[in-house]
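Page header: ASSEMBLY MODEL / two components / 568 residues total.
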Amino acid sequence: MTSSFDRHAHLRAKPDAVAAERAHPEARVTLVWRGKSLLDGERRNGLWLPLPEAPWAIEVYLGRTADGHPRFAADLSNLEDVEAYAEGGRFSDLMRAGWGMDPAELHDLAYARGMAHWHRSTSHCGNCGTELDTADGGFKRQCPGCGATVFPRTDPAVMILVTKGDRCLLARQPRFPPQMYSALAGFVEPGESLEACVLRETKEEVGLEALNPRYFGSQPWPFPQSLMVGYTVDVEGEDFQLDEEELEAARWFSREELANPDGFFYPPAMSLAHHMIRAFIKGA
Amino acid sequence: MTSSFDRHAHLRAKPDAVAAERAHPEARVTLVWRGKSLLDGERRNGLWLPLPEAPWAIEVYLGRTADGHPRFAADLSNLEDVEAYAEGGRFSDLMRAGWGMDPAELHDLAYARGMAHWHRSTSHCGNCGTELDTADGGFKRQCPGCGATVFPRTDPAVMILVTKGDRCLLARQPRFPPQMYSALAGFVEPGESLEACVLRETKEEVGLEALNPRYFGSQPWPFPQSLMVGYTVDVEGEDFQLDEEELEAARWFSREELANPDGFFYPPAMSLAHHMIRAFIKGA
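Prediction written out in full:
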């Protein structure tokens, strides 16, 4: 899952170029309000609206579509009532709606939502507390007090498929929908490689010693600001011990059971875990 | 490169447990002052000092050594004069000193330095500007104003070895030591997979279309807070066009030339780029 836009990052630092993008007849904006994305009534697509005079505090230049049409994101969280801007759509939970959306559309809206979240959570300087200015088409914030520069934040995290021969270990976080099981996951810490994080998280979450982490792939997960990096591992032993603060259940699943799920399901195609589990079923 | 400590992350949320770690007779602390690490006179090792009454504002529980000895980091940047704490060592640039250090020692000190940097740059709430409290052994900061929680920040970045048959493309950033060439590098943006970032950065920095990114490995690079993820790519064509804001030179190097460097060098063993280039020389 990755945005389909060409970011045209070289334009960002040129205010005239960003203004020209904004004035393009095919320029459009997607709106985010307090973490919710403006989708059509059926929540299948985003509403991409012409750019009006801006009533919002935050606007980000996302780049161009494959057709060369400029795309922006705006965050309206400074407004109490945004019905007037909904244009027949509604502000919806993108992660939930994403299950039924076209992947490319979901990617683009998630990118917009991630940038909006960063602006909302980064309005003040971490160094001195002063309110930050915005620059570079929304990709930089600067402190008029101490001069600090702040760039968008992305938190790297690992997704871990623990395997043992013909079986893999899936677990449930308390916040999951009922009956959903998935791979293990955890955030990378300062001073850690991705591989070291895989070993630590496997030990912490299920008490097993992971061996031989194998890279699977990566995907952005801007809910609100993660980057998932997937690894498949083998483990010593099979008797796991749950970290009950993180997980409410776990169990071993055979390839055959995963191929014909009964009484459980695993995450949908928008999640990296889905693709890791599918590859495992196919014998990878 | 990754820290050798067992982080004992489950202890962090228990103030009594962290206090017991601190009171352990073999507990030691490494000091960081305004980005510099306290090293011995020859800058070969860190000075790990007994824990005194703390004159510093920030203290982080790093975990335990393989021998079970607790280790802490402290940031003294709130003090103007720290000579009295140097204990015969000196506050030094860790990245520079790292070229001659034992890898395990460098990892541990870099982890400490990364945590100290995060605290220094995150003393105020990004949401409302209030001064943050510290919790969880230094792994969490909390806002007494709006209730926001902030975790340590790590910026994922890609390292890209562009290859074409028997040759690879190395480049110079203006800040590099004279005659040093390295792989391309760039930060991941919100809404981007690591692979998409590899393609975008290759295009932006040298104007070439990258194909088929292959994962190499990862390492923390807390100077101040990056995580490097390495990929080897092939490219279409070979006539590159430099982004002159990022790079001052680039050229193709054959395997033979890299095996016997003359008039140039590539990064030392502390860098992921070193290992990528070494693997390329060996035919990977």
